[in-house]
Amino acid sequence: MNDLSKLTYSKIKEGLGKGEFTSEEVTSSYIDRINAVDSKIGAFLEFNPEKILASAKESDARRKSKALKSEMDGIPIGIKDNICIEGEITSCASKILSNFRSPYDATVITKLKSKGFLFVPRTNMDEFAMGSSTENSAFQTTKNPFDVTRIPGGSSGGSAAAVASGMVSTSLGSDTGGSIRQPAALCGVWGLKPTYGRVSRYGLVAYASSLDQIGPFGNDIHSVIDVFDSIQGYDSHDQTSAKEKSFNVNHVKLGSWKGLRVGVMKTEDTQASPSVAKRYEELKAALTKEGAILKELDFSLFKYSIPVYYLIATAECSSNLSRFDGIRYGFRDEGQGKLEDLYVESRSKGFGNEVKRRILLGTFSLSSGYYDAYYGKAQKARVLIKKQYESFFKDVDFIFQPTSPTSAFKVGEKTKDPIQMYLADILTTTVNLAGVPAISCPAGLDEIGLPIGMQLTSNHFEEEKLLSYALMLNEFPETKIHLPETIK
Length: 488
What we know:
Blueprint: H1 9-18, H2 23-41, H3 49-64, E1 76-80, H4 107-115, E2 118-123, H5 157-164, E3 170-175, H6 181-187, E4 190-193, E5 213-218, H7 221-231, E6 261-264, H8 274-289, E7 293-296, H9 305-320, H10 339-350, H11 353-366, H12 372-395, E8 398-402, H13 418-422, H14 429-434, E9 438-445, E10 451-457, H15 463-473
Parallel strand pairs: 1-2, 1-3, 6-7, 6-8
Antiparallel strand pairs: 3-5, 4-5, 4-9, 8-10, 9-10
Helix pairs in contact: 2-3, 9-11, 9-12
Active site: 80, 155, 179
Pfam family, one: Amidase
Protein name: Glutamyl-tRNA(Gln) amidotransferase subunit A
């Protein structure tokens, strides 16, 4: 049997449908691949091959008896460690939740189960999704499959690296300020951040509730389309879930670039490295050649996105993480003292430095005397950013820009300078502030062989159009990336 882990998601789906191989054979290939390379990558925090194989055998039995749940029945999918699966550890890569087993399934897990996907939990992440490099995990640092001396991006770096290294063909992550799109770009895979409210957040451990959104990674565009189609839709368990008309996967198709209005940035405004800027210019030229009409947009307001994002996100994280007190669940310090000492010691020892930094910043911005000056002003600026997008989409069909200003940086390069680390999200945070959908698409390699990603952004609930544009961009030879088969 050939190594099936080398196949794209589409080839896996097609081969299962034609009976060329079984789910058990696919799963065994992924297990072999995980055993062979994850010691170098560190994508998974936990891995139970017996359980995954048992699920694969159940899928094969359904296929044999013609009782398939869907065309995707039997395809393994990686799950980020902040998405609850009943009976499984959900630690958010934090010591404070290292012994927490979820009593229920997240809505996205329920939906994926109904389609027959096989779960491969848990992929590593920045603790409580706070980070841009997956160096903030309490347990391990995930590495980039293209160069293990470099980061895979974050906070969903484990999910991105697992796909890029062939340990799964698709995975789930969460995106608060770029945490799907940025690691997708740095690992050379596809990553979609849906419209806020399009995918239920029920069962996603919250970082910043008004910004978080679950979305898929994949080693081809079709995996992102299928997984998004499987998990999207209204959910009564989530009060922020949108009752928009359902996404229709049949409306995602190749079209013509001719006459499409594409919003672009001035290259100098992207703050991109020379290699990323060069590829951006090449692809803008390719779009023009195909008949697209490029319109340069005024992104000057977006220079405020990082401070606005971090004030809002940290304020919400300060509130959300107050529930982790050492009393009801999770880590508890067993030292002697007053009740207040239990809170202080449990949180001090349970949370990592970056989480504590953001809690302190958020608590400060919400405190008496500072609320209006910082948090209140940030919320007003957020409204302006949202209105800016609304004006953009009156003039263009979608926006085309780099996902990350640089390719993957070295492990440890920015850990001592939080501001430089935060600036890694400069091209992605506005999408979350406005709640619009965006996808990072592979866009080739730079001069030292590291992936570059390009981001497409469309208006609220226009995922059908957005994914069609991504499908069309996939036809350009400049976007092709061969994922690494050998991890050095």
